[in-house]
Structures are given as structure tokens and as C-alpha cells.
């Protein structure tokens, strides 16, 4: 529950159109916070400068993805009247703060960051040569958080090491220069909607490079084809065979998306997910029937998002105006923080 003095910051890297993994892992939990209200201010950053750290050779892609991400955010339910949506690279104060914070972090500390180590190991395109910008992005993230005085930062479990490092930077800065920066606190959503979804092929990760995701912009036909092709339980060969639901993407998706009204409308012989899963586990329920139900659920869930997205895409100037206004608002807050930081560091020579 947000408090009246809380400032909340969320962020997403524009790596392409967003899929249902982003939707349940980040968008929906953040929109729930937005709609609950009770906070002082909420920011949502499209981290395009951070996106350049591993797309440095394709800036046009990052630029296009900013609009794609903005469309997905707005279509899913981000409200610019309640959340300040802004573009990271348009706020140069973030770069200057990053530069000052670099003096507070050692190379050895960055090398120990589990998130950085994991992501570097996954980036085959680096070929052993990691750009400094990518290596130091925990420092950049600390600048993003502190620039807006954010004390609440909703993140997934994989981002906790980044928040820990941001907190270390804040502590060290305040210890040296006086109480200037707000200490951030990570909030990890615990609701079912924030579960990490596997790919439709059973891979633990969903992404464009793996071609295994359902995207918010997918057409009805694309959704149906993807659900039809989904990986299930390879040992559930015959209808009468007992099936596994815990590692079965079809049932994982149903556990997140299927609501009682979906059962009433599309599969009334079952009251809820538990009854459906129990039948599958004891045998006598075929994958085709379950997939048809999942398709109906996904169509019902994603149709309004897709329709809102298509309407927004027909007026890109209005979307860009939302981003422009949000960025101006965010930049004013960042400029105020930078001025206080420079005063604390005795870098205000002409004041």
C-alpha cells in the first residue's frame, strides 16, 4: 500500500514489442499500483539509453521500439494523468549523475553484481568484449532512481542485485557529502499475475530472439496459431494418460489468465482452474480441448488491449505528445536533484 509521500519509479527497456510475459511480470503489477493511488508521484521510464548498451550498432531499432513500448504501455492501462511516462535519453541530467556516481563504485563491485554477470554471459554478440556502458549500467540505474527521489522501485527478483547496488551508492554518497539522496526500496510483486511465464515452446525465457512469445500486438489468428503449437506434457500421449501441469506452459498460462467467468463462458463443465488441472493430472482430458479453452481465454484477455493499441497507433503524434509532456515533467525533477547533488559536492561555483 503506497503512502502519501512515496515516489515510485518503474522502467522498461525498449527491446521490441512487449509480450504477455512483460504484461504479467511488470505492466499489470505496475498498473495495479498506479490505480490504487495513495502515492505522491509515479514515474514510468522508457529506458532507451540503457537499450543502446546492447544495441549500440542499431540505434534505429531502439528508436522504433520506443513507440512500440509506449503503445503497449498505454494500451495495457498506463494512464498519463496518473503516471509520468518519459524517455530516458531526453534527460541529460541522468548522464551527469551517472558520471558523478562512478567515483563511488569499484570495478570489483561491478564484477560481483549477479545481474550483470548473468546478462553478460547471455550476450553472445559481445564476443568477449563488453562495452563499458553495459558494464556500468547498475550505476546508470542508480542515477535513474535517485534523480526522481524514488523511494519505491517495483522490480522482479532478477533485478534485486541492481537495487542493492543503488542503495549502496546512495549510502556512500550521503556518508561523504551529507544527507542528499533518498534511499530506494525494492518492491517485488507477489501476486499470481506477476509470475514469470515460460515461452510457448517450454523454454524458461520468452523472447523475440527465441520466437516463442505471444505479443500484445498479435492478431487473433496469430494468437490461435501460437496456442495450438504450444508445448505441453510430452508424456501425455493419449487422452487417458495422467498429465503434468506444473511444468506445462498451457496450464501455467491458465493459472495466471483463466478466471471463473472464463470457465462459465467457455468451459462450464469445470468450476475453476483447480478442477481442470485435477482432471488433467488423473487422466481423461486431452491437450486439444485444453488448448481450445486457453485460446478462448487469451483472445478474451488480449482483444481489448490490441484494439486500444491499434487505435493509439493511428495517432502517433498524440502518443509522442504524451511522452514529450511526461519527459518535460521528469526532467524538471531530475534537474532539481542534480542541482542538490552538485551543491553537496561543492561543484556549484557560480551560485
Structure description:
This protein is mainly alpha-helical and 351 residues long. The chain has two domains: 7-196 and 316-344, HUPs (Rossmann fold), CATH 3.40.50; 218-310, Orthogonal Bundle (Tyrosyl-Transfer RNA Synthetase), CATH 1.10.240. The protein has helices spanning 20-36, 48-51, 59-76, 92-101, 107-112, 114-122, 132-135, 137-147, 160-177, 220-228, 249-257, 260-266, 273-282, 287-313, 316-344, and strands at residues 7-12, 41-46, 84-87, 152-154, 185-187. The protein has a three-stranded parallel β-sheet. Strands 4-5 form a two-stranded parallel sheet. β1 (7-12), α1 and β2 form a beta-alpha-beta unit. α4 (92-101) packs across α8 (137-147) and α4 packs parallel to α15. It starts with 6 loop residues before the first strand and ends in a 7-residue tail after the last helix. The model has no long low-confidence stretch (mean pLDDT 92).
CATH fold topology of the largest domain: Rossmann fold
**What is the N-to-C order of secondary-structure elements (H for helix, E for strand)?**
EHEHHEHHHHHEHEHHHHHH
Coarse shape: elongated
Number of strands: 5
**Strand fraction:** 5-15%
Uncertain residue ranges: none
Helix and strand content put the structural class at: mainly alpha
How widely separated are the two ends?
A: 40 Å
Instruction: Supply the CATH architecture of the largest domain.
Output: 3-Layer(aba) Sandwich
Rounded radius of gyration (Å): 22 Å
Q: How many separate domains?
A: 2
Q: Give the biggest beta sheet.
A: 3 strands, parallel
CATH class of the largest domain: Alpha Beta
CATH superfamily of the largest domain: HUPs
